[in-house]
Amino acid sequence: MIVGLGLVSLAIDMVADGAASVSGALLEQLGATALLVGLVTGGAQALALILRLATGPWADRTGAYWGFTISGYALTAASVPLLAFTPLLGAAGLAVASALLLVERTGKAIRSPSKTVLLADAARAVGLGKGFGVHKALDQIGAFAGPLVVAGVAAITGSLAPAFLVLIIPGAAAMLLLFWLRAKVPDPSMYRAEEPVADAPVAEEAVLAAEPPAPEALEPVAAEGSAPPTGHAARATFRTFLLFSLFAGLTTFGLLSYGIVSFHLVKADLVPVAGVPLVYALGMAAAALSALATGWGYDRWGPRVLYAVPVMTLFVPGLSLAPTLGFVLAGVVVWGAATGVQDSTVKALVADLVPGRRRGAAYGWFAVFQGVGALAGAVVAGALYGNVPLLITLVAVLQVAALVLLAIVLRRRRSREPG
Fold it and tell me: Are 27 and 261 a contacting pair, CB within 8 Å?
């Protein structure tokens, strides 16, 4: 079950990240402006995060985890190959391509919470860390391989359309494997030897399907034998969590969107279209390495390593939208490194700030802040594409504010530590 779901993620990430690597370039070819590229790609990122607040609880209420998982994967498997036909639609091609990109990320929002529930059930039988580790490794292989496949096919054919059509193969393989897994394991709860305790580790994606937290919902859990926490302590925890969520939103804003970067690569004629997904693959490699490095650093030195996120983000607009390829490649490496930390290590501090049995609500709303930041950042970057110095200034100001917020959060966190 664990390896099977991992292979499904590998195949679907080939499809999804293959499309993401050239989404901006495709929209540019169809006549989109930088602003529209930012709106579509940023909106797609926001949908993938924010809609989980609805799809997760909905799946919990119905218990239809397999149904949500299969439906979400099917949307991605079907929508991406259909992008191949958008250049044939004339004036309607741009609108259809934009809609298909939004549908693809909606599929991500539908499947992620339910897929993680299925995976968590199976992983409990072998260990959550091992189970999710195997799945994440296979997932990252797909995220790296998809853009390489798109680049290869586009280089051979000289067009993006055949590259999108080739992605039918991993998409179909993923769907066949999903139906086979459901037939073999119709009820994954069979793996549950017992329910986990309240403060057991919670899988990162599973907790994104949560209801909104109120201040009292984030109330610290009292140690055994101690007095119950006060309302003031609950409100302080809630405020600290909100400050850190705002920090994450500001840094996500500054990371723009690869759709804008791919638009720039084609618009400025820095690389051929076939080279655009290779640049994306470079960013994904940097993301994987930075996630591992900062995860190790977090365990060794604590959350101080998170100061690197706004510092790296400061350089993203100026480098990734530069007029020369060398600077853009450097910018994509920095973008990928910061993105890797955002998707992994940043969330570790949420676990430190919020009690274990309240982390579901916290992660759900943390994703909302990141989603809003992603949408706003991509739209503003598109609107200011012709005025990069102003964009650099705006991002710099917001990252200074993010550094201040992080300093406040860490000071408040230290004040809560015993001794």
Answer: no
In this prediction the pTM is 0.79
| pLDDT tens string 284-337 | 888 888 877 887 888 788 888 899 999 999 999 999 999 999 999 999 999 999
C-alpha separations of 268 from 323, 330, 381, 398 in Å: 7, 16, 16, 27
* DSSP reduced 3-state for 159: coil
Query: Identity (one letter) of the amino acid at 414?
Result: R
Alpha helices, DSSP H, located in 269-417: 276-301, 308-320, 325-342, 346-353, 359-383, 388-416
Q: Which domains does the chain have, with CATH numbers?
A: 2-185+204-218+231-416 (1.20.1250.20)
Angle between helices 2-20 and 65-82 (to 10 degrees): 30
Query: Does residue 379 contact residue 38 with C-beta atoms inside 8 Å?
Result: yes
Pick from 253, 250, 260: which is nearest to 40 by CA? Answer: 260
Alpha-carbon gap, residue 113 to 55, rounded angstroms: 7
Report whether 322 contacts 389 (CB < 8 A).
no
Q: Which two tokens stand for residue 84?
A: 């191949």
Q: How many residues does the chain have?
A: 419
- Is the separation of the CB atoms in 56 and 109 below 8 Å? no
